[in-house]
Every structure is written in C-alpha cells, then in structure tokens.
Input
Amino acid sequence: MRSNRSLGKIKMTRERKPIYPTKSVLLPRQKEPQAPDGGSAGVVGMGLMGSSIATCLLAAGHTVAAVETDPAKLRKSPRRVRLLLEGLTEERLLSANPKKILRRLTVSADYSVLRQAQIVMECVTEDLNVKKMVIRSIEQAVSRGAIIGSNTSAIPPTLLQHDALHPERILGIHWGEPAHITRFMEIICGEKTATVHAERALALARRWGKEPSLLRKDVRGFITNRVMYAMLREAFHLVESGVASIADVDRSLRNDLGYWITFAGPFRFMDLTGIPAYCAVMRDLLPDLDCGKLVPELMKKVVEAGAQGTANAKGFYEYTPAQAKEWEERFLKFSYDIRALAQQYPEENGNASCGRVEGIPPKRETRKRVLRRRRG
Output
C-alpha cells in the first residue's frame, strides 16, 4: 500500500477479535520451543511487505530493529508503519497506543542494529544472489542462536543455506500481504534446517496471530504459490486462446473459489461436495489443461509496457490514479472484513484419514525425538 493516512481509516463492518496479545515476554533462550510474544526481532528491507511485517512484529510485542539501505524508504518507513498500526487500532485488533508502539521501532542502514535480534526476517527483492548477500550480512550481525527467516515466495531455503555460517537456523517464512492482517504463513525447512528452529518459528507464528503451515520438504513455490501459479497459467491460457476475457475469468473465479476458499481448503471442499465427482472430472479434464513452461505472452507484454498494477495505476485493467488508490483501500478494508468473517469459522482440521507424507512423523512424535536426542 502507499503511505497514505487514509489507510488507517477504514470503517469497522464486523466485530473484531484482537489479533495480538497484551503481555510481553522475551523470546526463548532455553532449549524447549515456546510461544513468546516479545523480545527483539529484526527486519531487513522496509518496502511494502517489510513494513507490514514490522507492523505485525511490533503489534505482537517485539522491539523491532529494521535495516533499509534505500534512503527514501528508510525515511518513509516509520510513517508507513504508524499508519498500519493506526489501522489495526481503529479496527479494534490492537488495544495499545500506536505512537507508544512505534517507539520500539528503529530503522537504520547499518546491520549492527540487528545485534540483539533473536529472529530476523529478510524481505528484499526475489533474487537468490541478493538474498544470500543479505543473509551473510545478517549472520555477521546477530548471535548464533538467532533464527533467520527469508520471506521468499519461491526460492528454496536450501539454496539460501549454501555457504551460510550457520545454515541450520535459516528457513523460509512466507508471509501473505497485508502481512499484519492475514492469518496466512508458510514455514519451510531447508535440507539443513534444525527441527528446533522450525518449531520455534511455528510457536512465534501463532503468537503473531497466524495459522501457519509447515513444509517438511523444500520445494520451489511452497504450497500456495505452486497451486496459485498453476491457476494463473490456466487463466492466461483461457484469455490468450480466446475462450474468455480477463474480466470474465476474474468474475468466474471470484464468484466460485472466492465463495468457499476462506471456509475450506480444496480437500475439505471435496469432502463437502462429493469426492467421486472430482475423480470423474479429473480423468477427462487434466489431460486438457495447459502445461506450458514459458511465461505467457500476455504477461510479458504487460510487464514490458511498464505495468506494476495499482502501484503505478497501470495493469491488466485501466485505472486513473484515484481509482488505483481506491482499489488499494478497498483491498485493505476487505482484508479486515474477511479476517473477521473467517474467525467465525475457526480452523478445525481434525485428523486427515490419508495423504500423510511417508517418513514424516506427527508433530508430537517429532518433538519427542528431538527431546530424546538432547537428553541422550
């Protein structure tokens, strides 16, 4: 979102339940993974996502040290974070005074501000070499016990662990935008990630108001992006082949997937609507779906034209600057509303009757093994 005061002034439409705790304790220094909600945390990269993540960490009780090397972003980031905190307060998701909370934020171009951080989120551009350089700078600044999480959308954490000083504490922590509102989070283990660090990250995620998913195998794109980009590929195919317009594809998906996806994931939805029918459709439909491995021509054309979406009022749709701003504000308002709606239907996964990854023990069994190894 742009730094605009109106972002913090969205009217409440549903009863809000506070996301963030009011008590604050230190992050765990002991061996057992716990669910702390205070202590020192770090963020590297204070762009759109980094500012939103910093907001979430501050609201959860952390003292936050942020690194931003771009002078313009460094200067603007405290105001952006304050506006997001004000939005949480006005939506009754946060009870503390945003100005007081902001006192726990330090933004600098110097990595040394991270020295006390017990978890650091890397939020720089989606480039492997850039991320590896940033992680190396983080490692030189923090203690050996600090967790380093990469907010990557697709880069396997195993690649980020190569040449690291302490690869066992590096993992992927995939946030959704707006990071301070959504319940979404994926935690991805690389080949060298230590179980204890993954469990600490899971505990923290829950204190941040998230419902995290753990990926025990390192795959590019993780869960949501692998599924979403398969959908995007087919959406481009339908448009480029003349089956439907951009608006018609958007309309169909919004009124079908958008109707149920917050309530149930795909497997639960098949349970609810009859599994055999999906098996029958798969036999005929799957061979006909697009399996292209190249970036769609329409996507390349739009990007080459300089489109960034609502950020510069140029995208798949036409916008005036005022319309682009309005869409951003509506998206923020919707994010609050959909969270309030989802809280009326809490997650109740139960036990999946099938589909467990072979060789991966349940959470309790994993924890017992870790404790046995330590005691032995």
